[in-house]
Design goal:
Layout lengths: L1 H29 L4 E9 L2 E11 L5 E7 L4 E12 L2 E6 L9 E6 L5 E8 L2 E9 L5
Antiparallel strand pairs: 1-2, 1-8, 2-3, 3-4, 4-5, 5-6, 6-7, 7-8
Length: about 140
């Protein structure tokens, strides 16, 4: 009986450790992206001032919003946020029915800039963002 109890506890401890490591690894991959990123989006001969903001929700899952500062469109929800190494992909979920706007970018080695491609409704553009310093 004692051996069975010890085995169960050991199995639970191992499962908990594996789950904790998985959440920790995911959070560490997302950590450099957390915060606000401001810059420009160039598409169809126009340059728009934009901001992407990334946070973690209560479940430690990354969430994000998009602001088109130039157009006054603020707080649009980002969706399908995927991070693989230094590569980021996401779409503007609130506009998915309007041409599925998608960002595909790469975080620079210093962790202070993201640059890449933007597509929407068959149009292609580029974007470049710099991490904003937190407000005090």
């Amino acid at each position: 009986m004692l051996n069975n109890t010890v085995s169960r506890r050991l199995i639970l401890a191992v499962l908990f450790a594996m789950l904790s490591l998985s959440v920790f690894a995911q959070t560490q991959a997302e950590k450099p992206l957390l915060g606000s990123w401001k810059g420009n989006l160039a598409i169809m001969g126009q340059t728009l001032e934009i901001r992407l903001t990334f946070t973690l929700d209560a479940a430690k899952k990354i969430q994000g919003t998009f602001d088109s500062i130039t157009q006054g469109a603020l707080g649009l929800k980002l969706g399908n946020i995927a991070i693989e190494g230094k590569n980021l992909t996401c779409n503007i979920a609130d506009l998915a029915a309007q041409g599925n706007p998608v960002f595909k970018g790469t975080l620079d080695a210093a962790g202070t800039k993201i640059a890449g491609d933007f597509t929407q409704a068959g149009y292609a553009g580029t974007f470049s963002l710099e991490k904003e310093k937190p407000k005090k």
